[in-house]
Structure formats: structure tokens, C-alpha cells
Write a structure and sequence with these properties.
The chain has helices spanning 44-54, 93-100, 116-125; strands at 13-15, 23-25, 31-40, 58-59, 63-65, 70-77, 80-87, 105-113, 136-137, 143-147, 157-161. The chain is α+β, with helices and mostly antiparallel strands.
Length: 162
């Protein structure tokens, strides 16, 4: 076999590269499904129209999320969804993303977890940074937290309580 050694995932936990291979107990071994893939867009109505009118998708109405500085549309696709997000106001965290990505693009992936507090303990024990010190209530009315992309292979990862 070429390349690096792959550490096995054990039933009682997950091997973490960030912790030098320490066994992480509970939390992360109880991942749920991908809840949604979020796309930052410059024109949410145009994007919603594409999915609804061209592809025939079931789209929500545009909802403003002032606490998060975004407007959202959810496009249901079986057990998962695409979330369209666009800035709401000048202080939106999406503004800096769109400055770097003029046409928009993949912003984050949201994974459901069975116990967000237990998962958060494991994440922090493995030196994975979060964007906020505690969970916040997300667009679905459930606790969420974002993991820093520099600690997640360049991916902004959202964890949401199942």
C-alpha cells in the first residue's frame, strides 16, 4: 500500500489526526445524515427560480435570518437539502465570502449530530476551533455550531443537533 498509514475507526470512538491519533470518546461516532449543503449566492430570487422553475425542485420562501445576517431558501432533496444563502445587511458574514467568490459557491456543509454538546467536547478536546464559543440557534430552530475551516481540511462545517 502506498501513502500514509490509515488508523482504524473503532466502535467506541474516532481516531483523530488533529490529536495525534488520540481516541475520541462518544459524540463524533454518532453522526447523523448531511442536513444540507449551503451555497452562497448573489441573487437569491434568481437562484431560487433556477431550482424551482428549471429543475422542478420544492423550494421554501425566502426567509430572513437577522440573527445570522443572511436570507435563506431551503431546497428539499429527499433526506437532505440545499440551502441558498445571501447577505442580509452590510455586516453579513457572507459578504466577505462573496468578495472572494464573485459568482458565489459552496459555503458550508451541515451535518446532524445526535448530541451536539458531547460532540463539541470531543471537537474541543481535539483542538478543533469553533467560530463561536457556544452553540447558537440556527435557521431550523435547533442548536448549531460552526467548526473552523482551517481545522477541517478547508471546509466550513456546521454541526446541528438532530
Amino acid at each position: 500500500m502506498l501513502g500514509r498509514v490509515v488508523r482504524p475507526v473503532l466502535r467506541s470512538g474516532v481516531r483523530s489526526a488533529a490529536s495525534g491519533g488520540k481516541l475520541a470518546q462518544s459524540g463524533l461516532n454518532k453522526l447523523g445524515p448531511i442536513n444540507h449543503v449551503a451555497m452562497a449566492v448573489t441573487d437569491i430570487e434568481k437562484s431560487r427560480s433556477f431550482y424551482r422553475d428549471v429543475l422542478g425542485a420544492d423550494c421554501s420562501e425566502v426567509e430572513q435570518q437577522p440573527a445570522h445576517g443572511v436570507s435563506t431558501v431551503f431546497i428539499r432533496m429527499g433526506e437532505t437539502a440545499i440551502e441558498l444563502i445571501t447577505p442580509l445587511g452590510d455586516n453579513s458574514p457572507i459578504n466577505s465570502f462573496l468578495k472572494k467568490n464573485k459568482n458565489g459557491g459552496l459555503h458550508h456543509i451541515c451535518i446532524d449530530v445526535h448530541d451536539i454538546e458531547a460532540t463539541l467536547k470531543v471537537v474541543r478536546a481535539n483542538n478543533i476551533r469553533t467560530l463561536t464559543p457556544t452553540t447558537v440557534i440556527g435557521a431550523h430552530g435547533k442548536p448549531v455550531i460552526f467548526l473552523h475551516p482551517k481545522d477541517c481540511n478547508g471546509l466550513l462545517l456546521e454541526l446541528q443537533q438532530l
